[in-house]
Design goal:
The protein is an alpha/beta fold and 323 residues long. The protein contains ten helices and 13 strands. The protein has two domains: 248 residues, 3-Layer(aba) Sandwich (Rossmann fold), CATH 3.40.50.150; 47 residues. It has an eight-stranded mixed beta sheet with strand order 3-2-1-4-5-7-6-8, with helices on both faces. Strands 12-9-13 form a three-stranded antiparallel beta sheet. α1 runs parallel beside α4. The longest helix has 17 residues. The structure holds S-adenosylmethionine.
Length: 323
């Protein structure tokens, strides 16, 4: 085991036992749902950033794997939509954390009459070597774990997610990213890394790591301020902004001309015809915004037409268009 993982284990063993404010991104879950009560002890141990829970990912999902389950808040939120025995597998490396999650999920069943703890199967295991067979889950999620990993471990963890997903299955991630490269001195500090403060990649590197694992489509769904590594406390020349991002990736083949990365760009045709057809599968109806990946946006831009308007990334891709 590499040294930093010993520190990660120590940090999260402590965080399983007693809530650690410094690890919390927010005490309020990103959204509330009618009829969902999240036990206080779970909220206090919300050690993620952003959210990986989206009903639109779950419409056809039989089995969801959640890696780095922590105290179980997102496993509970996923269960809200799935409501079946064993529909969510909540995996964690630490038995202490699994014990905490188990007891908080039992508390949740007392607070929510629709919920049964059997909806979440808690399983011990490591993200870098998942104890699941290939192509056995429809959705695989993780929140705020992969940023902790050093490059080799991140590569292994993403490749394991790719392996266990069925074809066309979805990987859903939330992690901090950094506006500039994090100085090696901080990246090598195991405690800062474990606290999700110094392992962050820059956004383009993070997206490339997902593509390198074999995902052909990647969507950036949210991008928000997360933390500042401030110059004073960290002996830096200037502050470094960390942002939390939410990303989904689909296990489909990478097209010959490169992956489709959606960052919230749209193309709007404003010409005289009813539509514009680029001959590559994109038909833009007049005046109707269409979400396009960065590759398509740049191909349309290179046509030099003044009747196609291309909007910049919103970093909040959700299918796009006008509704
Ligand atoms: C930052 S916390 C996030 C917890 C949870 N996702 C949340 O949003 O509250 C990271 C979690 O991953 C677990 N973990 C750390 N290393 C792991 C590994 N290699 N494989 C699986 N889980 C791991 C920790 O025990 C901890 O529960």
């Amino acid at each position: 085991m590499s040294d930093y993982m010993e520190t990660v284990d120590a940090v999260y063993s402590e965080a399983a036992d007693a809530p650690q404010m410094a690890l919390c991104c927010t005490l309020v879950p990103p959204w509330k749902l009618p009829g969902l009560s999240v036990p206080k002890g779970m909220l206090e141990r919300n050690y993620g950033c952003g959210s990986t829970v989206n009903p639109r990912d779950l419409a056809d999902a039989e089995r969801v794997l959640y890696v780095g389950v922590g105290a179980g808040m997102e496993a509970l939120q996923l269960s809200y939509f799935l409501r079946r025995q064993g529909a969510v597998i909540g995996l964690d490396r630490l038995q202490d954390m699994l014990d905490t999650a188990g007891s908080l999920l039992r508390e949740a069943s007392a607070e929510n009459d629709w919920f049964d703890p059997s909806f979440v199967e808690l399983r011990r295991g490591d993200a870098r070597e998942l104890p699941l067979s290939s192509e056995s889950v429809d959705v695989a999620a993780q929140n705020c774990l992969f940023n902790i990993f050093e490059r080799g471990d991140l590569r292994d963890a993403l490749s394991e997610m790719h392996r266990v997903l069925r074809p066309a299955g979805k990987l859903v991630l939330s992690d901090p990213v950094s506006s500039v490269p994090i100085p090696q001195r901080l990246a090598d500090d195991p405690r800062l890394r474990a606290q999700c403060l110094s392992g962050a990649l820059q956004l383009d590197e993070y997206l490339q790591a997902i593509v390198d694992a074999g995902f052909g489509t990647v969507e950036v769904r949210a991008r928000r301020p997360y933390r500042v590594l401030d110059a004073r406390r960290h002996d830096l020349r200037q502050d470094i902004l960390l942002e939390s991002i939410e990303v989904a990736a689909i296990k489909d083949p990478i097209p010959d001309d490169g992956p489709c990365i959606f960052t919230g760009r749209s193309a709007i045709y404003i010409g005289d015809d009813e539509c514009f057809d680029d001959g590559k599968g994109h038909v833009l109806m007049r005046d109707m915004p269409m979400g396009v990946c960065d590759k398509t946006a740049s191909a349309l831009g290179s046509l030099g037409r003044d009747d196609i308007v291309l909007t910049p990334p919103t970093w909040h891709y959700s299918g796009d268009g006008c509704c």
